Amino acid sequence: MKSEESKTPHPRNAERRRLFDNIGSLYLLQGVNYLIPMVVLPYLVRVLGMETYGLVAFAQSFAQYFNILTDYGFNFSATRSIAQCRDEVGSISEVFCCVFLIKFFLTAVGLTLLVCILLVVPRMRHDWAIYMLAFVAVIGNVLFPVWFFQGVEKMRYISVISGSTKAISAALLFVFVHRPADGLLAVAIQSAGMVLAGIIGLAVCLATMHLDLQWPSWDSLKTCSSDGWHLFVSTASVSLYTNTNVFLVGLLAGNVQAGYFSAAEKLIRAVSGLIGPINQAVFPFVNSLARTSSRAALDFIAQCLRWMSGITLMPAVAMFLLARPIAVLCFGHAALGAVPTLRWIAPLPFLIAISNVLGIQTMLIFGLDKQFSRILISAGVVNIALGVPLIALRGAQGAGISVLVTETVVTLTMILVLRHHKIRIPLRQKTAV
Question: Is 424 left (phi over 0), alpha (psi -120 to 50) or beta?
Fold first, then answer.
């Protein structure tokens, strides 16, 4: 007769099963994230026209700065904190309360800043309603505790809630948005979907996790703020060579060029999204693994590097070679102006896959937060310095060239920093003797 101990699964095996279950759940969400934009985006480009679509993309990219402000790096720092104490209800409750209190404060700061900007900048004041509606999505993002579900490794909740609300928003877009004059309505529907997801996500979190909600201490708030600071700076710096490009193109080259760049970038980001579920699920898992064995964590990181680079290489090559038919198929002949930009940024999924593993899954896990932050700050400065003159000369293509150079610099710098700190990722697979 087998003992009770033999029937109990090994803790490490249980953790791996949970990891793959989370990856599966996130890929289900990613499938929805692929399907919906690949149907909705071409529709919006066609019915709104490139100029109105460019304005919508410009407003949403501007709102993304407030998402970065209110996220404050918590998608990594709070996830990491909860992953380290997820069996202690008191500790995770304290983290939960601290994060939400700080997020609500930052939302108020963001809204105040937005109103001031709209009053001061004539071009934006003219379309103030679309910017305010785009900000509503920020509120939805604040309410949805994605960072908490990641920390306790309950990614199914994210999949079901986010997928369902996006499907509802997509259906409403097809029903109500039919012409260029409906640009404002398109933004309103998408933002409302984010708020609905946030409310449901928060309600599910409170109903299932039985958290002890209380006003956090000043020391806890300071610790939470300090933990998120370097990652907030890093995330803000990333926006200087991701989100800022759409904003700069719209500012320097007009709404049509912003539409071209946004359309090309969304295709590339969709390919990069192939590794998104792995990144989200692996981060808390590797964190837990590194606490017991650095070597085991590095071995697993090496596997992730092989998976992610392999998953993204062929789509990146295909995007470069087939840029024209892909652009026409997705957006129609009005998007032919996006083809050169699409070719410039086609290698990004491969580069981003590598830099995500080196940065998020390795540097952050091994305590190189400051170095990680410095690399991304420098990259943001490089992108702005290159982007402004290149966009002025070549519009959307200039932004594509700038972001490609920047991502290449980021990846190479991370390799050098890890070597300097003698963190070696064993890329060669072990062979059985």
Answer: beta
Q: Which of 206, 230, 254 is the last residue of a domain?
A: 230
Alpha-carbon separation of residue 39 from 188, 232, 267, 297, 322 (angstroms): 18, 33, 12, 39, 19
Q: What is the pTM of this model?
A: 0.66
Domain check: are 152 and 125 in the same one? yes
In contact, 25 and 158? CB cutoff 8 Å: yes
Six token digits for residue 376? 């991304």
List of E strands, 168-294: none
Alpha-carbon distance of 280 to 100, in angstroms, equals 20
pLDDT in tens, 130-148: 999 999 999 999 999 888 8
Res 4 pLDDT > 60 = no
Is 423 contained in some domain? yes
- 96: nearest Cα among 121, 111, 113, 79: 79
431 with 397, same domain: the answer is yes
pLDDT tens, 305-356? 888 888 889 989 999 999 999 888 877 777 788 899 999 999 999 999 999 8
Say whether both 214 and 256 belong to one domain. Answer: no
**293-305 as b/e: b if 16+ CB within 10 A:** eeeebbebbbebb
The whole domain housing 185 covers 10-230
**What digits encode the pLDDT tens for the residues 360-375?**
888 888 888 888 888 8
- Helix, strand, coil percent content, the chain, rounded in steps of 5: 85, 0, 15
Q: What kind and span of H or E run contains 227?
A: helix 218-239
- C-alpha separations of 95 from 68, 80, 102, 327, 407 in Å: 19, 11, 11, 44, 33
SS3 state at 83: helix
Mean pLDDT of the chain: 83
Pair 264, 208 in one domain: no
User: Is residue 219 domain-shared with residue 269, that is, in the same domain?
Assistant: no
d(CA 57, CA 115): 19
